Model the fold of this input.
Amino acid sequence: MTATLEATLADLRHANAELQKKLREFRAERDQAQAQQTASAEVLRIIASSPKDLQPVFESILANATALCDAKFGNLWLREGSAFRIAATHGAPPEYEDYLRREPVVHPDPRTGLGQILKTKKTVHVADMTSAETFKDPVRLATIELAHARTLVGVPMLSDNEVVGVLGIYRQEVRPFSDKQIDLVTSFASQAAIAIENARLLRELRQRTGDLQESLEYQIATSDVLKVISRTDLALQPVLETLVETATRLCKADHGYVFRHLEGRHHLAAAFGVTPEYREFVSQNPFVPDRGTLSGRTALERRIVHIEDVANDPEYTWSEAQKRGNLHTGLGVPLLRDNILFGLLVLYRSRVERFSDKQIQLVSTFADQAVIAIENARLIAEQREALEQQTATAEVLQVINSSPGDLVPVFDAILEKAHRLCDAPCGSLQIYDREHIRAVAVRGLPEPFAAILRQG
Done:
């Protein structure tokens, strides 16, 4: 009976030990699951709080992956075309990390972990990197020699079934990772891919929103200029001032100018963003077109001219203007219609920064509007001048009809209308009596001189 009791007690002790073992295993699995859940929640929180900044996400993923999988260090690579660039490391020796950041991997060797993952889009698990096939891949050798890596697991980061990156963790001893650990790294790689895709979508959304906002701003500005053109009648100056201000502001330029082509020279007609002293300097120096200035080159070529930095342009010779105005990147657009040059619209930046294609297109639109405004002003002026001439002729005929026997009022009326139409300050109307030429009407002249003219 004693033997039976002892056997029973031994069975109970063995069963209790098994229960204790299973309990420890259960608790370990529970703690590991909780740690994994906490780590995943932390990564997701960082993704949500930093949708456009991926660096904190990558660093958190590596830190959690290496800790939970009992790895020594980890790397996160991003794919850029046919190359891989290190985006983050955790726990790596400093000299190895410096090497990775200096040397992007271009066309990875298909025998390396990166090469296999890129080719198969599957996880690579190497129990001992030193026992693998010997080949002189620099990154592989650096990982072994500088980082003392032995066991590796590399997991692809996939988006639309394309490799966008690789998450790799390493041990410095030969100790393969368990299936659960590999599954955990795979989960982290998926989170990294999600973060990358979210950032890409956010960038695209912001780009589209920015493009729409920019397009709307351009349309509103164009509409505003057209309204000014339609409401200003004969006054051209407000149109040109509004136009050059709007073009300068929307294109993020620092200076804007409109030049009118008159009698072989280009004269300043409007400016924005310049000091009174520099405006006076440009106004007093109308230029004959030559290749030494942006404006002259634009006028000669009759096309858009874009100079990245006039200070370093070999043909640009108007150095005084460049220094006074602090001019660097310049854009010149001709005001053309039917190959007739009306003037120029010129923008400058005080920094070296090229204008975008959209900005150049916008300035071209404003140049077209400037031509419309100039033509409208010319047509209105011609119509008004013709009407004034007709009115003056009618008024002279009316004087003739009302004074058939007295020519003095007629001569006075003719001279007055001629002076008004021609905007002349003084003059005379003289007739020839077969012997002398004498004045019969005088306006604005000193009386002694007028008396001489009357005598003939």
Summary: The mean pLDDT is 81. Residues 208 and 214 are 10 Å apart (CA to CA). Residues 179-231 form the longest helix (53 residues).
